[in-house]
Amino acid sequence: MTPPRTASTSRATSPGATRMSAQDRRELVLEAATRAFARGGFAGTSTDAVAKEAGVSQPYVVRIFGTKQELFLEVFARAGQRIEEAFGAVLATPGFDGRREEHRELLGEAYTTLLDDRDMMLCLMHGFTAGDNPEIGAVGRASMGRIFAALRAGRFPDDEARDFIAYGMLLNVLMAMRAPEHAGDDGAEGLGALATCVFGNHLETARAGHGR
Questions:
Q1: Quick one: which H or E segment has residue 8?
Q2: Residues 83, 86, 87, 91: what is their CA dihedral angle, to the nearest 10 degrees?
Q3: CA 47 from centroid of its chain's CA atoms
Q4: Within 10 A of 18 (CB to CB), how many other CB atoms are there?
Q5: Which of 170, 130, 141 lies closest to 45, judged by CA?
Q6: Helix pair 58-65, 22-40: axis angle to 10 deg
Q7: Helix and strand element counts for the chain (H, E)
Q8: List of the chain residues with pLDDT < 50
Q9: Are 61 and 54 spatial neighbours (Cβ–Cβ below 8 Å)?
Q10: Burial class (CB in 10 A: 0-12, 13-18, 19+), 140
Q11: pTM for the complete prediction?
Q12: How far apart are alpha carbons 68 and 45 in whole angstroms?
């Protein structure tokens, strides 16, 4: 179901309303595109669907971003950048050492917080699965490489950096399949045990936040 228009969307399109800046209008479309691509993926989402989500015309979306691929590339890159920035803030902590469990836990908490933005995480997953597209694949590979390099620079041993990223990807997959809110379904004992093991104390939060 398409979410109701926000006040900012109305301001962008209502006659006589306060005019938004070009950057605000661009951000409005990017947020709408994130929601639309999260639902339909790259292949299954059109610029018309993004326009309807944003409450603007399809030619307007094309005028700002060009092709659907260029728009998706920006959405995908922003998702990766948010992870890099969240990790970077923790890794910049004075004395951070990825070999220390308490520091690894800080980084894990930073990533778990990002899971609150399910649309962003789904766009990340859609981008990775569209890796056969040369340009989309290049963005995903570059982002993953930078994240791994940042962990190594934070004194994570290679195998632990690998395991940390793998754990994050498992969280993403379980979120994408809505495992937290279905962990208690009949016949889903294995799924419930897996979700509990992976999300731990965050399972109830994940279930409440993404059962919408």
A1: helix 7-13
A2: 160
A3: 19
A4: 7
A5: 130
A6: 110
A7: 12, 0
A8: 1-17, 211-212
A9: yes
A10: buried
A11: 0.85
A12: 8
